[in-house]
Fold:
Amino acid sequence: MDLNRDLEKIELQESELILSKFDFEIAWQIGTRLHDLGIARRFPIVIDVRYFGQPLFYSALPGSVPDNAEWIRRKSNTVARFHRSSYGVGLMLQQAGTTLFDRYALPSTDYASHGGAFPVKVKDAGVIGSIGVSGLPQRDDHELVVEALCLILNRDHASLALPKD
Structure:
């Protein structure tokens, strides 16, 4: 994996995957799309779509475990704090050779800089929530969220996907 290349692509994803609005219905559509992808691919994932502080969609698919919900909570806290994807934050910290605790004094009991939570960014409003997936390797969690957002926004996923290693 080329760290710089992935960070550049994540910045592009975060700048391009912007919703014109976000409400309960759109949260449901995103969550349902992730649910359908997970079922079709037999992914053992948990899905969480939320305004910061308010869950709007939650689903645990077969094979997922209770710890997946905890990972989403911690990754979503990272999105809320930095308004960036948890994977982007994690790669940035990896590049700098540091951790959330060392750099920001954020405890690992409440924050995780692993892939899988992506900011819900609304045009003219900014980041107001997160979309989280947990249960796959972190890069795959991140990419599944990006794929679902591309489908919802009618964007070409191939042009925004992280490069294959």
Q: What stands out?
A: The two ends are 6 Å apart (CA to CA). The CA atoms of residues 74 and 111 lie 4 Å apart. The longest strand covers residues 126-134.
